[in-house]
Specification:
3-stranded antiparallel beta sheet; single chain; mainly beta; 6-stranded mixed beta sheet
Length: 196
Amino acid sequence: YKYRTTFNSSDGKNTIILFANDSVNVGNSTTISFTVDTTGPGITLNAPVNNLNTSAINVTFNFTATDNIASSLNCSIFIDNVLNQTNTSTLNGTATIFNLYNITEGSHNWNVTCIDNLGNSNYSLTRAFIVDITAPNVTLNTPINLFNTSIVNVTFNFTATDNLDTTLNCSIYIDNVLNQSNISTLNGTATLFNLY
């Protein structure tokens, strides 16, 4: 005699015991075990932090992928939405790194996608980072070089420009001694330091 039934099982390991007996109550059983996995891996980005601003063109990306069943996962890093590298044996629950070399200057984003052995996938949050290897340029507008004056209050007018940043941290030194700083100097805008 064949009997069919359906039931809902939960994610993880499941066990079914089939029992049958005859009219004189002689019985037998068999056990079937199976695993259900419908959950994609979890992904935590460990480093670098979101909005990292670095002058390094070689950056190490660190993440941890976790899965409810699989011991290893297939994980890939995407830079600016383009696949960069894949690790087909990322260990479950273990910090994993991708080393990227010669990253171009500018603003970038990164995220990680992982797939378990049953094809369940997930992707991480997306983080941003900036590679900035070009120093700002500073132009002294006034006074001119070798300026002579009998006035003790002198105003220095300068313009700082940068290819990436909108605000700059600028300082003026008098005889190699820090006199003052402006941490919110606007890029490409004439700025004043008044010396009294």
